[in-house]
């Protein structure tokens, strides 16, 4: 499997604050990757490192096997929609399309115009007067009309109402479906429900570290909730790794990672929803639980 | 990128162009009238000056000083409004994260912006300076004072250097402060500081000043700018005199008056004591064989100084642009 984005021990510090620590991960080609984590977990930092807006304090990040934003050609292959979807408030929608056409060699003008028409945006409208959802759609249009092979989106729907959120994710899926050589998308959010709908791969980031990373189907197939009479964590059989443990006086509840469910009359082992799975990782021991690369 | 820069900069540029057009109309109108008056005046005058020539300066003092102030202010305003917002506004509104991910690098983004806005700044200031220099040239021929610090900065080619420098300064400050309004204020303050510092500390030393001993004869005394006593009131007050030289830049406002034995004179030791007046009579002084030593930059150094100072500011511009480019990659990484 070709890696589109590959980071090794990637670390970013702002003065004494660590925004991202020792992050090693691979984004496989042709996937829609969800990057989930609480606010301040390092999602923005990771995405901005991947598109070259930031440079690492230590470690490396490579996109298509090269440093990000190395030159114009490299920039042209990566689309980026920044947090809060910034646009030039004084420029009209048409101006933004012209900007994209002037600055990007692979610009697809027909696609951009078609999208603007479909979205019902007025080309003569200044972007400062667009609604949040319209502005996000404009920013997405700019990013996808570059015909990128990798599309990075930093919390694009965080500020949108549910309807605009749905419309935006819809547009995003259309782009993925239409792209000739199946573009790779990395989308960050602090809401699992946003990602569940569109992603097939998930990276959980918390406390500036990668907590879990894998195909959503695999993650769902290997995570279980295990409810038993109260027992210590280390009495569980080998082959089960505890992600998260909760004890009451009489009962213990574990979220474990295992190859398959193990039948045992002394416990109930059941599959976990994605939301609970992510939450378990977010409330896990802060020690990094790095998954093997596949 | 050229299109985008122009699209973003259009409104600001049109405001400046409108202001320049208004200034042009005003100075052209006044300048043509001034030339008529000047011809009339010099036609009835013997060569070597006219006693009522200075009246012309009074008559045209409003356009004269307006022009000077415009040329002095233009680079400062350009630096604050064009330069400081060049980078700071993008960082403030987050649009740098949009534009730096288009198919051009941020290095080229900055280069195009700086070159285009810098060229516009130089063009606007250059036209204004040309206009003001043209307007004021008859008055400069009467006043012989274009080398004085204030007028030097408001004539010729130096304003072009100031304008380029101001844009680069504004862009650099904007990059490091990331706030448009703060960057504008700091740019104005820094530019003003440079404009005060240069004539005080740098320009006088661009070339070794000429040191000359000037005899205080009847002519010199008659045209002296200052003549009197400084320091504590009483017999020990130093006797000083200051003179003007046409079109030269006098670095010493006034110098101690010395006698033929090079002794510095005071109120008590000056040779023409007169109980009825504080000031000795010029006739008596003219016979006393006195002299003063002056330091000045002679008139023929005016254009060399203009070019040298312009070159210094252009070099500073290049240095600031390099610093901004460096900061763009380092500081925003």
UniProtKB/TrEMBL annotation, chain A:
Gene3D superfamilies: P-loop containing nucleotide triphosphate hydrolases (3.40.50.300). Pfam families: ABC_tran (PF00005). One of its GO terms (molecular function) is ATP hydrolysis activity. InterPro entries: AAA+_ATPase, ABC_transporter-like_ATP-bd, ABC_Transporter_VariousFunc, P-loop_NTPase. Keywords: ATP-binding, Nucleotide-binding, Transport. The keyword Cytoplasm does not apply. Residues 5-232 form the ABC transporter domain. It comes from the Bacteria. Coiled coil: none annotated. The keyword Magnesium does not apply. PANTHER family: ABC TRANSPORTER ATP-BINDING PROTEIN ALBC-RELATED (PTHR42939:SF1). This is ABC transporter ATP-binding protein. The lineage of its organism: Bacteria, Bacillati, Actinomycetota, Actinomycetes, Kitasatosporales.
TrEMBL record, chain B:
The chain crosses the membrane at residues 12-29, 64-88, 109-136, 156-177, 184-202, 307-328. The keyword Metal-binding does not apply. One of its GO terms (molecular function) is ABC-type transporter activity. GO terms for cellular component: plasma membrane. Keywords: Membrane, Transmembrane, Transmembrane helix. This is Transporter. It comes from Kitasatospora cheerisanensis KCTC 2395.
